[in-house]
Amino acid sequence: MCGAVRFAIALPTKWCAHCHCSMCRRAHGAAYVTWVGVPRGQFRMIAGEALQRYRSSEAATRGFCGKCGSMMLFESTRWADEVHVARAAIPGAIDREPQAHVFFSDRAEWVHVEDPLPRKGGASGVEPL
């Protein structure tokens, strides 16, 4: 939001999805978060001195701007070869629209989704529902 943390991604992305897990909801203060997955080698930090990392679980860290607080990144040992970037932190168009709702079983009970995207959830968060 403030520009203190800047990055670039090279296309193609691997995926784009709306995540409904409780950790993403709490971290972003939102009903769900739209993430874009990119191979680690296609992510480049341009200005990252203000980047702060928060270990949100034993396997995951979340990156945010230490100046304005904007949440931007998610990295996990589960997807060690990827960087997940908050879609809202990427200006302009990318090579794909959101493809699914993941961790849908964990969604906030007050969220009502009407779009036709596949819903995934279960123990892994990505099993077809």
Topology:
Layout: E1 6-9, E2 15-19, H1 22-28, E3 33-39, E4 43-47, E5 51-55, E6 60-65, E7 71-76, E8 82-86, E9 101-102, E10 120-121, E11 127-128
Parallel strand pairs: 2-9
Antiparallel strand pairs: 1-4, 2-3, 3-8, 5-6, 6-7, 7-8, 10-11
Index terms:
1 helix, 11 strands, 129 residues, two-stranded antiparallel sheet, mainly beta, glutathione-dependent formaldehyde- activating enzyme (gfa), 5% helix, 7-stranded mixed beta sheet
Can you walk me through this structure?
The chain contains 1 helix and 11 strands; from the N terminus they run ββαβββββββββ. It is mainly beta and 129 residues long. The chain has a single domain, classed as glutathione-dependent formaldehyde- activating enzyme (gfa) (Alpha-Beta Complex), CATH 3.90.1590. The protein is globular and about 40 Å long.
As laid out across the biggest beta sheet, the strand order is: 5-6-7-8-3-2-9
Q: pLDDT average, as an integer?
A: 97
CATH architecture: Alpha-Beta Complex
What's the story with the biggest beta sheet? 7 strands, mixed
